[in-house]
Model the fold of this input.
Amino acid sequence: MKSLVIATTAFLTTISLGQAALASNSEHVRQLLATKECQNCNLSGAGLVLADLSGANLAGANLVGANLSRANLTGADLRGANLSSASLFGANLSGAKLSGATLLGTDLRNTYLFNADLADVDLNGSNYEGATGIPTRFANPEKFYALGVAEAQKGNQQPAVEYFTQAISMKPDYAAAYLARGVARYQILDREGAFKDAQMAERLYKMQNDGDGTLVATAFMKELQTPYDATVDVGKPSFMDFVGSVGSLLLQFFPF
Done:
């Protein structure tokens, strides 16, 4: 009987403490939304989807597991904040101060990071696929290339072009990135840009004695030089038709 009383007391105590913590967290959420001042607040698990937190002071805040998807955090102060496992999917972090923030397991997909202060920040443990404005120091050319391929596979050709361009800016002789950018440009009807990229890819592959790459780039150039059939409504060009003409050679470069 005594053990039952102890167990019941412990259970009720746990519930009480959980409710107190939840109440405290709710108060902090209200404070943040009302004043945009919540330095060192406990906002773990808070639901802040689409919240307007531009310029908010969240320095040192506990935002573990918080949902900040598509929130406006432009110019927000998040220095030293713990954003582990938080969702910032599609959030606007332009100009935000993130120095010293913890981003382990953070969802940064499709975020805007232009002019964000990312000093002393490790992005390796976060998912920043589709994010824009990522400083080049956070990724090597191969990472930007992989991000570009991922966007292209989803049909997001313009972001793919931007990622391939970043890869090329870091590695000017990156033949595969030129070829990939050409493919993406082809799919957004920029045949001139696509042809120039294909030419550069072919030149680089030849310089690098890469026979397979040269063959693919040359085949792509021939495809681009073939005019559309004016009598057929082709719409957006399908690169899969081109894949069929080159076969497995192309698939090693573009795993569509």
Observations:
- Residues 1-24, 230-234, 243-251 have pLDDT under 50 and may be disordered.
